[in-house]
């Protein structure tokens, strides 16, 4: 029985992939918004139920024969007329006492609305203040550049040689705030990791800041939330939150240039890379490839996904992506590349060696 | 100008209206004066408000069906993960078409059409104030709608969303003509809406029946008035924006290009300065419909006339102060965010007051559960639901999570379908007998209602949860491991159930037009003046122009209620009254049928359409417009007796 439940849980977790939900906050920002959500949800549900119940009661209360004509409409018409003409009216006056009671109810409901809205406004403002006041000293600074349709992450450092450029996979240390500097090179994108924080737009010509912090280690899925053209649907990324030591280790490793290829096959693969069209867009530190149009590939093999968290990073997908990425993500900016099978084989071996 | 006068009518209260010889003569004369010309020319030159209003409604409904088909196709694509019904290119076109069609080609023109059809009848006059402007508004709208839909068929459909954010819609990232088509469609429909609103304001202010002072105007008319003013102030913002965009694209200006000193966010400010009021432009007239229907089926006056009117006017003002809540994620200063959050929540106060007044009306009324009321009751549940999720979206901190997700999609469909389409259907069942003389089938109508209601909730309720699960808007596909599959499938099933309901509605309309029960002039025992004339109304609306002495004109009618006399029946004359108290002021002769509005609309059509391809379009179009406008405004020959009068 227990094993069965465990299996179910595992299957469920397997189906879900990386976490991506507003309702499972894993950082202070998302947690505060989640608390705010609970307040809003409770109050709004209450109001909704009240309104609908009132309406249903009103409907049940005084229904009449659905045929028109048997009951006169009730309007306050008599007040308009001199006394002798009242008899001619086929409308009868509404009951003043009822009207007064209704007026009291409406006034009470309106006052209650104002009070509830004030409560919501204040909780929202408090949450907003708390979000803005999240600690940002000692924050890790990462520049996020949106591209159609992938993410560039540049870890800033006072030492120029320690600038780190990677793509589509953001590693962050658990428990430490990360100040993301958001810009875009082309159109407007929006950076959103539902489990960690609210979204913030990446706008060309301006730099926005978003504070991100994860309290629990894990892999969280992020995505572009602003429509940005053809492949807006396939512009995601992973946030890998690790304990600080693991993060530092990752960072040190990523700062290393790509290891020179040792085997014949990978050496040939590097030749294919450097003499082919790849170098027009991509960079691999430690080689002469240094273009910045597409994602930096220095440690490609260390990433979990390809094509902005669209595909798992396995050999088959990599091969398919190189030969005809248009069939996997139509409209993306990488052209199909024709390679003889042995060249492709060597190139794949080389790229897979870029751990 | 001579003044129209108000005399007591000789009609007897209960006797069948036997027409005297004089009346029959007058009726024949009115018939001659107001009937449209015959043939194709007559059809194209008709300028009467009932004809143009009906055309608006039918055209907008056809666009609604097209937008609905687009929705079905999108839902098919999203029913399963990684489905290949549509590729990204086509999907992006389809969702852009769906949004643009529903907002610009269905919702606003539909509300205008309903207003145009009903307001002159409801205020007791023979036509709208500027009949030719009406015809022009309709043709412009039609050309704009055709332009966009034909372009779509030619694979030139816009693909950057109904909001067309720059720089994505700019020259660099959207080469080709797709966005130009969209921008010009906007220009067309805005032009049409502006013409319509000017006409609506003049009609409401100056043509009301004697006695219908401002504080006796039906709430429907108030709603149309506030709507018209909102159009007047909001549409110029989007016309300006779409003009800037068109210039950026066509002649290389840099309004929105940050690299050349332009600003990418400027577009969003201009667009939402229009875009948020747009929601109220759609939904205020629906509130008017609601008040009309509710009074009749609750058999009592609407509770709280003054608060209702003030609430509508307040929404009209506050509606202009909320646009930034569409832009919370762009990174505004904290103070600005709090300000716009407060404004966004504030609009819930007048909306709430209206809801409470209607509930009080329900509570104090004697309800007749007929079809129109079904839709109104559903409105309460759905609109309040959508309003509350709107409060969530208006609160800036919460918005950062739910913005641009399916939560928003769910929210605005609750507000726009629940808040506008449901009342529209209610109003349709209510007014159908007035304009066809026959009742819609109650049984088919109930099927339509329940299928539509159930399908609607199946479609849009799960979307709230999808949004919280991180599903963003405007994605053409999603991976199977996201956990979104089942709810998406459910939503797709719901959409098809709605579609079945809609098909039944269309069947009902066609069946009932010919075979429905004969309605009579006032089948619901309703209160407003359109029910005082025959069903369908004659081309001159009323044989005797009515007067009014209460908010519920027919319910407060006296046995010896006066009628207006002295307005000529051998010329298309209307009675102009004063703005506040609707005292008779003077008679005005209206322009008759004319082909010129069509000609002017066609020349502006040439200007806008050709300018998509070459700036010379403006030059050619301006020349044509000059010629056609000259024709339009060419002075009319004076009548012979007026010439004689001028002789010394």
From TrEMBL, chain A:
| Chain ranges of the Cytochrome c domain | 264-355
- Give me the gene this protein comes from: coxB
Q: What is the E.C. number? A: 7.1.1.9
The family classification in the record reads: Belongs to the cytochrome c oxidase subunit 2 family.
- Subcellular location as annotated: Membrane
Which residue intervals define the domain Cytochrome oxidase subunit II copper A binding in the entry? 137-253
Function of this protein? Subunits I and II form the functional core of the enzyme complex. Electrons originating in cytochrome c are transferred via heme a and Cu(A) to the binuclear center formed by heme a3 and Cu(B).
Residue intervals passing through the bilayer? 35-60, 102-122
Q: Does the keyword Transmembrane helix apply?
A: yes
Protein name as catalogued: cytochrome-c oxidase
Q: How does it sit in the membrane?
A: Multi-pass membrane protein
Primary localization class, coarse: membrane
Q: What SUPFAM superfamilies does the database record attribute to this sequence?
A: Cupredoxins (SSF49503), Cytochrome c (SSF46626)
- What InterPro entries does this protein map onto? CcO_II, CcO_II-like_C, Copper_CuA, Cupredoxin, CuRO_CcO_Caa3_II, Cyt_c-like_dom, Cyt_c-like_dom_sf, Cyt_c_oxidase_su2
TrEMBL record, chain B:
Residues of the region (Disordered) are 1-25
| Enzyme Commission identifier(s) | 7.1.1.9
Position of the signal peptide: none
Pfam families in the record: COX1
Q: Which CDD domains match?
A: Ubiquinol_Oxidase_I (cd01662)
Q: What is its subcellular localisation? A: Cell membrane
What is the recorded name of this protein?
Answer: Cytochrome c oxidase subunit 1
Organism, by scientific name, is Hyalangium rubrum
């Amino acid at each position: 029985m227990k094993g069965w439940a465990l299996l179910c849980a595992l299957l469920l977790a397997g189906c879900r992939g990386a976490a991506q939900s507003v309702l499972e906050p894993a950082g202070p920002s998302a947690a505060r918004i989640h608390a705010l959500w609970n307040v809003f949800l409770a109050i709004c549900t209450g109001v909704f139920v009240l309104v609908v119940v009132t309406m249903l009661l009103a409907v049940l209360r005084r229904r009449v024969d659905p045929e028109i004509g048997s009951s006169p409409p009730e309007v306050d018409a008599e007040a308009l007329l001199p006394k002798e003409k009242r008899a001619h009216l086929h409308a009868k006056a509404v009951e003043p006492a009822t009207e007064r009671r209704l007026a009291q109810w409406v006034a009470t409901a309106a006052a209650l609305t104002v009070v509830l809205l004030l409560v919501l406004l204040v909780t929202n403002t408090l949450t907003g203040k708390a979000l803005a006041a999240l600690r940002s000293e000692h924050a890790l600074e990462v520049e996020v550049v949106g591209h159609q349709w992938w993410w560039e992450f540049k870890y800033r450092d006072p030492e120029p040689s320690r600038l780190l450029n990677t793509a589509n996979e953001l590693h962050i240390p658990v428990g430490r705030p990360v100040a993301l500097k958001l810009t875009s090179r082309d159109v407007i994108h929006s950076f959103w990791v539902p489990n960690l924080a609210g979204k913030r737009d990446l706008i060309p010509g301006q730099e926005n800041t978003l504070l991100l912090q994860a309290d629990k280690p894990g892999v969280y899925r992020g995505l572009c939330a602003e429509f940005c053209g053809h492949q807006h649907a396939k512009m995601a990324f992973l946030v890998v939150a690790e304990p600080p030591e693991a993060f530092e280790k990752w960072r040190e490793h990523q700062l290393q240039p790509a290891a020179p290829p040792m085997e014949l096959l990978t050496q040939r693969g590097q030749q294919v890379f450097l003499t082919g069209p790849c170098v027009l867009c991509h960079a691999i530190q430690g080689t002469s490839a240094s273009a910045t149009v597409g994602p930096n590939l220095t440690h490609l093999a260390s990433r979990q996904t390809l094509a902005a968290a669209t595909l798992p990073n396995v050999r088959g997908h990599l091969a398919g992506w190189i030969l005809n990425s248009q069939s996997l993500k139509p409209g993306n900016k990488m052209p199909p590349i024709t390679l003889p099978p042995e060249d492709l084989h060597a190139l794949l071996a080389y790229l897979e060696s870029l751990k | 100008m001579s003044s129209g006068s108000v005399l007591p009518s000789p009609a007897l209260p209960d006797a069948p209206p036997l027409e005297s010889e004089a009346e029959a003569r007058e009726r024949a004369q009115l018939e001659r004066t107001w009937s449209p010309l015959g043939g194709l020319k007559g059809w194209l030159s008709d300028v009467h408000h009932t004809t143009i209003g009906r055309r608006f409604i039918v055209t907008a409904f056809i666009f609604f069906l097209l937008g609905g088909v687009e929705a079905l196709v999108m839902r098919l694509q999203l029913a399963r993960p990684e489905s290949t019904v549509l590729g990204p290119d086509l999907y992006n076109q389809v969702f852009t078409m769906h949004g643009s069609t529903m907002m610009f080609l269905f919702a606003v023109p539909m509300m205008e059409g309903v207003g145009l059809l009903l307001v002159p009848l409801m205020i007791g006059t023979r036509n709208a104030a500027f009949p030719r402007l009406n015809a022009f508004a309709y043709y412009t709208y039609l050309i704009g709608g055709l332009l966009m839909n034909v372009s779509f068929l030619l694979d030139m459909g816009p693909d950057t969303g109904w909001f067309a954010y720059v720089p994505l819609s700019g020259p660099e990232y959207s080469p080709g003509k797709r966005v130009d088509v969209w921008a010009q469609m906007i220009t067309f429909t805005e032009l049409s809406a502006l013409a319509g609103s000017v006409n609506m304001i003049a009609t409401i202010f100056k043509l009301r029946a004697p006695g219908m002072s401002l504080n006796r105007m039906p709430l429907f008319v108030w709603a149309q008035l506030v709507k018209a003013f909102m159009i007047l102030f909001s549409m110029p913002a989007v016309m300006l924006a779409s003009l800037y965009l068109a210039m950026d694209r066509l002649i290389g200006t840099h309004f929105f290009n940050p690299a050349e000193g332009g600003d990418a966010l400027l577009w969003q400010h201009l667009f939402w300065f229009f875009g948020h009021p747009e929601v109220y432009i759609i939904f205020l007239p629906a509130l008017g419909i609601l008040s009309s229907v509710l009074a009749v089926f609750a058999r009592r006056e609407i509770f709280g006339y003054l608060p209702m009117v003030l609430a509508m006017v307040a929404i009209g003002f506050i509606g202009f102060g909320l646009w930034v809540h569409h832009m919370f994620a762009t990174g505004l200063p904290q103070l600005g965010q709090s300000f716009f959050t407060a404004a966004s929540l504030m609009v819930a106060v007048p909306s709430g007051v209206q809801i409470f007044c209607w509930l009080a009306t329900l509570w104090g009324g004697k309800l007749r559960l007929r079809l129109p009321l079904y839709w109104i009751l559903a409105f309460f549940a759905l609109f309040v639901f959508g309003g509350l999720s709107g409060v969530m979206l208006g609160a800036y901190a919460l918005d950062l999570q739910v913005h641009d997700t399916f939560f928003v999609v769910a929210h605005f469909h609750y507000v726009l379908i629940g808040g506008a389409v449901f009342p529209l259907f209610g109003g349709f069942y209510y007014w159908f007998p007035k304009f066809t003389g026959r009742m819609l089938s109650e049984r088919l109508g109930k099927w339509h209602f329940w299928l539509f209601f159930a399908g609607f909730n199946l479609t849009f309720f799960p979307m709230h949860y999808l949004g919280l699960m991180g599903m963003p808007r405007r994605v053409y596909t999603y991976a199977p491991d996201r956990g979104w599959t089942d709810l998406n499938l459910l939503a797709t099933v719901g959409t098809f159930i709605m579609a079945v309901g809609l098909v039944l509605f269309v069947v009902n309309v066609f069946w009932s037009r010919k075979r429905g029960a004969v309605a009579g002039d006032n089948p619901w025992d309703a209160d407003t003046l359109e029910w005082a004339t025959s069903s369908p109304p004659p081309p001159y609306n009323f044989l005797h122009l009515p007067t009014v002495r209460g908010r519920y004109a027919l319910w407060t009618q006296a046995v010896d209620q006066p009628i207006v006399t002295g307005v000529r029946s051998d010329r298309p004359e209307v009675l102009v009254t004063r703005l506040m108290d609707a005292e008779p002021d003077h008679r005005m002769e209206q322009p008759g049928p004319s082909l010129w509005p069509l000609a002017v609309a066609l020349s502006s059509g040439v200007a806008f359409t050709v300018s998509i391809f070459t700036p010379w379009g403006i030059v050619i179009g301006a020349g044509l417009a000059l010629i056609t406008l000259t024709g339009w405004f060419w002075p009319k020959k004076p009548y012979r007796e007026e010439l004689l009068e001028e002789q010394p």
